[in-house]
Amino acid sequence: MKYKLLSCFIVCLLLIAGFHYPVFAQDGLAGMPGTYLHMGVGAQALGLGKAYTALASDATAIYWNPAALANQNPYQVYFMHSVLFFDTNFDYLAGSIPTRQLGSFGLGLMYLNSGDFDQRNELNEELDSFGINDLAFLFSWSRELFKGFSAGINYKLVTEHMLDYSGVGHGFDLGLKTRLFDRVDVGLMFLNLIPPRVKLAYESQTYPMQIRLGAAMAFLENKLVVSADVGKIMGWESAMLNIGAEYRFMNNYAVRAGLNNGRLTLGVGFMLNQMGIDYGHKNVAEFGLNHNFAVKYAFGGFGVNAKAFPEIFSPVGEQNISHITLSAKSRSAIVQWSFNIIDKKGKIIRSFSERGLLPEEIVWDGRDDSGVLVEDGKYKYRFEIWTLDGETLKDEGILVSIDTKGPSGTLGLAP
Predict the structure, then answer these.
(1) What pLDDT does residue 332 have?
(2) What is the CATH number of domain 2-299?
């Protein structure tokens, strides 16, 4: 309780002392050192208007808030490609690894490649063309310090290259995340807390620090998520406001919308097993649409899963039962588990739960909790475990299909 009160105090202090500047639409970042570090990564985040500091739920947390890595369970790989303007492309590649004792680790790469620019001499004679390349390596570590409160840091190595000049700089980020009031996640990010300093030719440039404060809340059994961020780039521009919302339907699909400094953003997402594909765009009136594409893959790590064999059976047929195997990997011992079988209307028709270790398997005979045979159709599952450290892991998906009628067709006699 004490750390939650401390979190509330910090949030209120920042809102009062740090964000009293006017909030309005502004894209005035041209010419700022390390601009690409403030552009945002991830098609999901960009579709949500960059309101992602408290919501980060994949390997883009390395950028948005490394503290969020502490609550992520599977290993993840993430790649994003953004098509910008004037032959400029922006790419992000990242991976995250949770461990049982040492916390969570992440590795990210950001690359901005600008197209050909005309090089001219003092007489305005065209000499050749050149490009500008910016590259940043991010090394992250995150850990839950208290129950529901985590912290994360980034070490970043940045490089710049233009013409015959190149420079290298080093910096650090700090992220914090907590859950308040049961359903509200709050995140605080200090980007460039220790700023990189890069020297090109004769002058050095120091990247400005940015502070972002975000909150996110889930509704409708986590199908709808609303998030908001307020941020300030120190010494550069007024505060920025970002708002986003995401709605998930049919388990695998998502639609997103947001406002990024007054600019409308839209996005869609699709999940298939452990793989996800996302698209997002931002409307920039002067130049058109800014397109962002991303692919992510999650595997292994900590989590729960259920698998049934056979996947189709008949309670009144020869194969009249299905064997359900439960698997779980957690950071600490399991103290309780729950497994529910759900019909197409979302109603729980069979429930299993116990304290202690998981059983080797669950056998289902196609009947509900009262012993009545269920109808033909597809059935889903919802599987949850609770651990000694207070962690909750859950999963849901398609389990089995019941078919008592068997194959259908017509019977004919050949001459």
Answers:
(1) 84
(2) 2.40.160.60
